[in-house]
Amino acid sequence: MQFIHSFSTPSIKFSLVCIFAAGLILSGCAGYQMSGSSGSSVSIDGEVLPDTTIQQFINPYKARLEEEMGQVIGMSARELGKPGRGENPLGNLVADFQKEFVAEVWGIEADISVINNGGLRTLLPKGAITLGKVYEISPFENYLYILELSPEDVKTLAHYTVHRQNLSISGMHLKSSDNQLEELLINGKPLDTNKTYLLAINDYLANGGDDMPFLIPVRRYRTSTTLIRDVIITKIKELEAAGKMIDARLEGRQLLN
Predict the structure, then answer these.
(1) Which residues form a coiled coil (predicted)?
(2) Does domain 72-255 sit in CATH 3.40.250.10?
């Protein structure tokens, strides 16, 4: 299970905490002790008005949150969706982002990068991309990990991907027929039985999510508290600063039949 309860931008965190705290403060919950209870049904309709004191307290933080979420951080050349199963443009983009991020920021050359398609909750529209849109796409508190895979671990990952068709990948090419793996290439090369491979992945999958328990005992080469959402934001801003548009397409990374 994935949980939505972390907000990576400090000012967004602050605004949300203030909005939440307003209800607690104004409810007079401190020091209250219930000694008995009784109740009756109350009809709630359009005549019930909001509490103006709470509303006035929340409004500045709500406005600040909306302003931050409305910031345009990049431009997309086309709509990037995730239709069907297996490879999709949005998944290719995020898998590539993870691979590039660990190389640029951590100095780690990951051989493979994967993202679960279910972790990407909506499409990336064409045109202006706001900070809020990235939160919609990646709302979960999933952290970026690097795992160290043996050749057998890579094979297991490849077979899983062919059968489940629920992952997007970067650095790995798969071809199958009748759900049977026929071809496996890592960055254009056959699997090296004497090599250890590094995999960029989120902690949800690394800890066995989406029926991937085979990753639980795999060595953690690096763990982090870097959110996948922050990786996406960082890479989009990087493209924007370079005057480039966000873009991704189907490339035949997964030829699954």
Answers:
(1) none
(2) no
